Amino acid sequence: MRKLFGALVILISGCHGNKNRPLPEQMDQLFTQEFKDNEPGAAVLVMLNGDTLLKKGYGISDIKGKEKVTPNTLFNIGSISKTFVSNTILLLATNGKLNVNDSLAKYFPNFKNPAIAKKVRLHHLLTHTSGLPDNRRAFHDSVYWLTARDEENWGPIENNDSLLFEPGTKFEYSNPAFNGLALIIEKITGRKWQQVVKERIFAPANMPTSKITDGPYPESGVAHGYLKSGSFYIEKDYGEEPTFAAAGNGGVWSSVNELANYEMALREGKILKKDLLEHSRSIMNYHPWKGDVPPFIGYSWFISQTADSVKIVSHTGTQGGFYADFVSIPEKGFLYIVLCNRSFPRQEFRKKILEMIKMKPRELFTPK
């Protein structure tokens, strides 16, 4: 009888023991179970009220070299890059170099239908509400898109003769919009937009090793992205993934350490003034709105709430074999960043992490 009772105690404690373990251990176990030591993996950082609950690498960054992932490993962060382009546009607006109400006609006078260029404003590009169709595939074959940069990805957009909807009335996620915004940075500054971001954001945010795609660059010192095919992983980044060279929509390479520096610099007003940052991270409520769901986006950032109405600011990133998630709850001093070089159940993990810290999300949006 005593042996049976002892076995029951062990079984029960085994079922509930994880919830009684410290939060860092719970989080570590969650990612350890997902990523194997000898396969493509992830870097994870979780902060709460100034304390780092988890900062760790899992798996390897390169199948050939077998380098271990660390919090300093550089991953392509996919569409989280859009926030860097957006913030640079806002910096230029602050300096009086442009206005987010400017029409596209001011910067791109060669639209096939000039009326479209006059209707669409820069803020429509920033909020994915321009109504411009993504017509790129109609112009070139897949081989062309393996090396096509920002200009080649934006060019077909100027050939549109109609809109999907009136600007500011619906949401339609657009990668080319941010290729176009990157080109506007170059038109305004007369310099490569990558260099402008490095000086205006990377430098004040203390991001010394972060890089931005420029053709095949960077070719070394970064993780490689992979796609699983059966029991094997095949490389899926520059040269294998169409539009990977188009940097405005997904060209930033960074680490969880330096992205944490980015977020802290934003919160501390080192990049944008705090009132402008708050505006950029608030839902842009256009009228009239005809979308199937209410507006949920700021200037590139996706805005949602916890169950008790605390603002969640986030963006995901997907490009080639890279998957990323960036979630900030400034009011609670919370930050969650995960950078992966293979696919993983991103939304499921985000929800679990938020529930672990007692901040259950009210609703989760899934931007591309």
Please give a quick description of this structure.
This protein has 368 residues and is α+β, with helices and mostly antiparallel strands. The chain is 32% helix and 16% strand.
Alpha-carbon Rg, integer: 22 Å
Oligomer: single chain
CATH topology: Beta-lactamase
Terminal-residue CA separation: 57 Å
The CATH C-level class name? Alpha Beta
Using the 3D structure, state the CATH architecture. 3-Layer(aba) Sandwich
Enumerate the spans where pLDDT stays under 50 for 5 or more consecutive residues: 1-16, 364-368
Order of helices and strands: HHEEEHHHHHHHEEEEHHEEEEH
Question: What share of residues is helical?
Answer: 25-40%
| Major sheet description | 6 strands, antiparallel
Integer count of domains: 1
CATH superfamily: DD-peptidase/beta-lactamase superfamily
Q: What's the count of strands? A: 11
**What structural class is derived from the secondary structure elements?**
alpha+beta
Strand order, largest beta sheet: 2-1-11-10-9-8
